[in-house]
């Protein structure tokens, strides 16, 4: 991560926080969520940021195989899954839904 990218991310974060501050200028009076919802929202944002940074780091250090190799292996895996599904589930998956009883309304 170079310095320009850190500056860009800082500016974007500042703009997001400024927009959030304009939307809720009086903090607790304008924020309708309770503590649990606020905590859940913050944890969700933190998890998203951590996963994004981890993915970015992995992409920067891992060398991937050529595209044709990935397509061939993906096709082979999909074909194997289809063959195994045909062997173990020859009649498919039958889902049983509850039958709704028809309610007859008597007209007076």
Q: How many individual β-strands?
A: 0
Q: In which range does the helix fraction lie?
A: 55-70%
- Total domains: 3
Radius of gyration: 26 Å
Helix-strand string: HHH
**Unreliable sequence segments:** none
Structural class: mainly alpha
Tally of alpha and pi helices:
3
Shape, please? flat
Distance between the ends: 77 Å
* Beta fraction: under 5%
What do the pLDDT scores average to?
Answer: 80
Query: What is the makeup of the main sheet?
Result: none
Task: Explain briefly what this protein structure is.
With 108 residues, this protein is mainly α. It has helices spanning 3-23, 35-61, 67-88.
Word description of this protein:
- The chain has 108 residues and is mainly alpha-helical.
- It folds into three domains: 1-30; 33-61; 65-92.
- 65% of the residues lie in helices and 0% in strands.
- The chain contains three helices and no strands.
Helix-strand blueprint:
Layout lengths: L2 H21 L11 H27 L5 H22 L20
What distinguishing features does this structure have?
0% strand; 3 domains; mainly alpha; 108 residues
């Amino acid at each position: 991560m170079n310095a320009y990218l850190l500056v860009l991310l800082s500016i974007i974060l500042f703009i997001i926080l400024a927009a959030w501050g304009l939307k809720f200028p009086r903090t607790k009076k304008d924020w309708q969520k309770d503590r649990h919802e606020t905590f859940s929202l913050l944890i969700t944002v933190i998890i998203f940021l951590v996963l994004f940074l981890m993915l970015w780091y992995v992409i920067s250090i891992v060398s991937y195989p050529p595209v044709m190799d990935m397509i061939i292996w993906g096709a082979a895996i999909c074909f194997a899954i289809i063959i195994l599904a045909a062997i173990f589930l020859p009649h498919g998956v039958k889902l049983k839904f509850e039958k709704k009883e028809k309610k007859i309304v008597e007209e007076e």
